[in-house]
Structures are given as structure tokens and as C-alpha cells.
């Protein structure tokens, strides 16, 4: 099958039972799904399970996709739901910590007290390969971030989705997305601060 | 941790802005006062820099590859689903 067919055409054919069209869709988006699942789960085994669940759900629910949103938006929402279900099954949120100020203000009113005491961060290793030590640090820091904040951070700051798209994927208002993103950034900065100023 | 700066109410205000807006939006005309403050406040500049670096580090984290065996496993499952 020609690999240049649009998503719309592949989806149309896959809905009619064309297995090759579905295979093509899987190949087109398998890396995106796996990468996103890994960035949220931070574990290869969990990412693999989420990847598989996602495509099984896409296969089962493709007839529900009406094309009103982008296919990737729909796909991301299936991945995030698969991740959430997996976490519930395994009760995996134990590693994360609660973020202070449980009320989500939408006016940007939470302060980071550490702004008082900021020594500059070192320039490296942004220009270098991220080594194993730093990778472990980044994994541990983001795993301490509660899932609902982590997924917003990954969608907005890592995957580059807009606040509107992120809201659509997670069924959140734009102010709620912005509030969670702000808190996630502040939390992760705090986690990395000792390493980056050492 | 070493205290290097006693922040003002304006620093607090700037901190709120830069937690929300790290890059392009800070260039907008509405953020002129923020930019002005950043030019003369090393603490707020360091804070902005550290938030930007936090995001950059996660963006630069290498993408993992899909293990080939997973594809085979998936299509085997899908065959039983139909």
C-alpha cells in the first residue's frame, strides 16, 4: 500500500476493515505513541503495555472517530486514558508527591518561594548528550510529579501541544491546563535545582 | 541555600509571569515591563533561565524506540480481536 495516503484516507479504509490501512496507521504513529507513553510512565515495560492497549483501543474504537478533531488529538486522548487505567490497576501513584496548594487557582497566583534564593544554573549539560546520571535524575524528578500534572507538562512542554489541544485531550479547561503546567514547571525546577547548581 | 537577593513585590509578579510564559509570549508588547525588570534583576533572570532549562532538558531526553517484537505481538492480539 502506498505510504503517502492521508490519515483521513487510511482511517476511511481501516473503518471498512482494510487491515493494511490499519497496519499503515499503526506504523505511522507507533513511535509517537511509544515515546509519549514512555515520557509519561518513565518505564519501558509500562510504556510497552500502554502502547499495546492504545492500539487495541484504536482498533476497537476507530468507528467512533468522527474526524472533528485531529487524529493525533484523539490518539493522545486514548494514550492518556490507557496510562490512567494502567495506573489505577497497579495503584502506581505512590511514588509521586502531592503538590502544595491543592486548589487550582486560574489567576496565576501561586508563588514559588525559591525565587528568593536562585543561584544561576550551570550551562552544561544542555550542550552535551544527556548521560545516564542526568537521565535517572530527570526520570526520578518527573515520577515524583503527580500524574495529572505530569501529563500536562509532557503534552504542553515536551510534545509541543497548544493549551487548547491539551485541554481537549484531557477534558480540562484552558485555565486548568495553564495552572497545572505552571505548577509542574515549578515543581520540576525545584527537583533539578540541587543538581544544576552543584 | 544561599540567599542572594531580597525580592520585591515586582519580582513576585515577574515570577508568576515567567512560570506561565517562558519564551515567545515574553516578547509581546504586553510584557514590556517584565522584560525591563529582567534586564536589571539577576535573580529573576536566573529564575527564568532555570525554568527554561528544566523544559529543555526534558525536550532533549532521547526518544525511546519501539521494540520490534511488540508490533508482532500487537497484530497477533488484533487477529483474535476481530
Write the SSE topology:
The complex is a heterodimer of chains A (198) and B (82).
Chain A: H1 7-15, H2 19-41, H3 44-61, H4 71-90, H5 132-144, H6 147-158, H7 163-170, H8 174-197
Chain B: H1 9-20, H2 32-40, H3 42-60, H4 68-81
Helix pairs in contact in B: 1-3, 2-3
Helix vs. strand class of chain B: mainly alpha
- Helix segment tally of chain A: 8
The helix tally of chain B amounts to: 4
Rounded to an integer in angstroms, the radius of gyration calculated over CA atoms of chain A is 19 Å
3D structure, described in words:
Chain A is mostly helical and 198 residues long. Chain A is 64% helix and 0% strand. By secondary structure, chain B is mainly α. Chain B has one domain. The longest helix of chain B is centred in the middle third of the chain and has 19 residues. The model of chain B has no long low-confidence stretch (mean pLDDT 82). Chains A and B meet through α2, α3, α5, α6 and α8 of A and α1, α3 and α4 of B.
Tag the structure with descriptive keywords.
heterodimer, A: 198 residues, mainly alpha, Rna Polymerase Sigma Factor, Chain: A, Arc Repressor Mutant, subunit A, 2 domains, 8 helices, B: 82 residues, 4 helices
Can you summarize this structure?
The complex is a heterodimer of chains A (198) and B (82). With 198 residues, chain A is an all-alpha fold.
Amino acid at each position: 500500500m502506498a505510504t503517502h495516503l492521508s490519515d483521513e484516507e487510511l482511517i476511511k479504509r481501516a473503518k471498512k476493515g482494510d487491515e493494511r490501512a490499519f497496519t499503515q496507521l499503526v506504523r505511522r504513529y507507533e513511535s509517537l505513541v511509544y515515546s509519549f507513553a514512555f515520557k509519561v510512565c518513565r518505564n519501558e515495560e509500562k510504556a510497552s503495555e500502554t502502547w499495546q492497549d492504545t492500539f487495541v483501543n484504536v482498533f476497537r474504537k476507530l468507528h467512533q472517530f468522527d474526524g472533528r478533531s485531529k487524529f493525533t488529538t484523539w490518539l493522545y486522548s486514548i494514550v492518556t486514558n490507557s496510562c490512567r487505567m494502567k495506573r489505577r490497576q497497579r495503584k502506581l501513584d505512590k511514588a509521586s508527591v502531592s503538590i502544595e496548594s491543592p486548589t487550582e487557582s486560574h489567576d496565576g497566583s501561586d508563588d514559588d518561594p525559591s525565587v528568593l534564593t536562585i543561584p544561576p544554573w550551570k550551562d552544561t549539560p544542555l550542550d552535551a548528550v544527556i548521560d545516564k546520571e542526568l537521565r535517572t535524575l530527570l526520570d526520578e524528578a518527573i515520577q515524583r510529579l503527580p500524574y495529572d500534572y505530569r501529563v500536562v507538562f509532557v503534552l504542553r512542554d515536551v510534545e509541543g501541544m497548544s493549551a487548547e489541544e491539551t485541554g481537549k485531550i484531557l477534558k480540562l479547561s484552558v485555565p486548568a491546563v495553564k495552572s497545572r503546567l505552571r505548577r509542574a514547571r515549578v515543581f520540576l525546577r525545584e527537583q533539578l535545582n540541587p543538581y544544576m547548581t552543584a | 541555600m544561599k540567599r542572594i537577593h531580597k525580592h520585591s513585590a515586582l519580582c513576585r509578579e515577574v515570577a508568576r509571569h515567567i512560570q506561565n510564559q517562558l519564551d515567545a509570549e515574553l516578547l509581546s508588547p504586553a510584557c514590556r515591563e517584565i522584560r525591563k525588570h529582567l534586564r536589571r534583576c539577576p535573580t529573576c533572570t536566573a529564575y527564568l533561565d532555570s525554568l527554561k532549562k528544566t523544559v529543555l532538558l526534558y525536550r532533549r531526553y532521547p526518544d525511546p524506540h519501539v521494540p520490534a517484537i511488540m508490533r508482532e505481538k500487537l497484530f497477533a492480539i488484533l487477529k483474535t480481536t476481530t
